[in-house]
Amino acid sequence: MASPLAEPPPSRMTVLISGGGTNLQALINACSSGLLPNTSIARVVSNRKGAFGLKRAEKAGIPTSYHNLLAYKRRFTDAKHATSKPEDVGDAADTAARTAYDADLATLVLADKPDLVVCAGWMHIFTNSFLNPLSAAKSPVLNIHPALSGEFDGANAIARAYAAFQEGRIKHTGIMIHYVVRDVDRGEPIVVREVEMGKREALEDLEGRIHVVEHELIVKGVGIALARLWEGRERDKDEVETTTQDGSRQSRENIDCGESKPNTPEICGHNTTL
After folding, report:
1. I want to staple 181 with a disulfide (CB 3.0 to 4.6 A). Which of 29, 175, 187, 218 is the partner?
2. Can you give the pLDDT at residue 93?
3. Is 124 one of the catalytic residues?
4. 192-196, 250-254, 268-272 — which is least confidently predicted?
């Protein structure tokens, strides 16, 4: 069994953004201060050319890339117009564009060999053409969502939670860092924090308080995810070494019994709530 790591090995993450990059800045600060020890940001990718987060990355000396979905939509719409009836163009072109876009995004991200991918205000829903290559490379994808698990999935979560509170349907909201799966904001939570709400509080004030907590929680979530990642790799390494050391004995047993014993994967589930 793998022993706990005294110090995490050097870790690389890619950060995906769409806007101002305040959560990105929290990660940049955590890497430089040692709050995320032995961790660096390999690249920042934005799907919006004017995202201020790109300037934050450039100031910190981090490579950046702009990956534009609209260019894919134009390309595939033009191609479909040439081969299909006009009424069949829209949905088919959009699906083809998103599939190709996500496949190229996966190629771009994996070229840097990141240990982890963090969505820090990334306003794009992934298809399996992105998620499957990242899963195969064993590079987990994380997201920050300004709501509690199972509540207000998708866009405008803070505003929807605020309206629900004003109507008396909820008593508080929250923030979670979670693993990304195909279903939007439905991946396993890594860390969750409740945020209290007040009847006389303006929506803008609630948004401001939530963003402050986000900056702390995204760093904590990344730290937990990296610790789990390296513990899993150490465990896998120990299992491989044990198999190698006992290989000759196991081979003889398999010959004697006429069959081999299947491997039983170790399955772990974690949920940290603050």
Report:
1. 187
2. 83
3. no
4. 268-272
Cα separation of 51 and 47, whole Å?
A: 8
Across the chain, mean pLDDT equals: 85
What count of other Cβ atoms lies within 10 Å of the Cβ of residue 70? 11
The 10 Å Cβ neighbour count of residue 271 is 12
Buried b (16+ CB within 10 A) or exposed e, 168-204: eebeebbbbbbbbeeeebebebbbbbebebeeeeeee
Buried b (16+ CB within 10 A) or exposed e, 210-245: bbebbbebbbbbbbbbbeebbbeebeeeeeeeeeee
Predicted pLDDT of residue 259: 38
Kindly report the pTM of this predicted structure. Answer: 0.81
Question: What is the spatial distance between Cα 92 and Cα 80, in angstroms, rounded to a whole number?
Answer: 8
Q: Using CA atoms in the order 246, 252, 253, 259, what is the torsion angle rounded to 10 degrees?
A: 120
Phi, psi values for residue 194, rounded to 5°: -80, 150
CB-based contacts of 258: which residues, under 8 Å, 6+ apart? Answer: none
Helix, strand, or coil (residue 4) = coil
| pLDDT surpasses 80 at 264 | no
- Check whether 88 has a pLDDT greater than 60: no
- Residue 3's region, left for phi above 0, alpha for psi from -120 to 50, else beta, is beta
Q: What are the distances in angstroms from CA 136 to CA 51, 110, 112, 203, 220?
A: 30, 11, 15, 41, 25
15 backbone dihedrals φ, ψ, rounded to 5°? -115, 130
Catalytic residue among 67, 81, 124, 145: 145
CB 178 within 8 A of CB 153: no
Rg, Å, the chain Cα set: 22
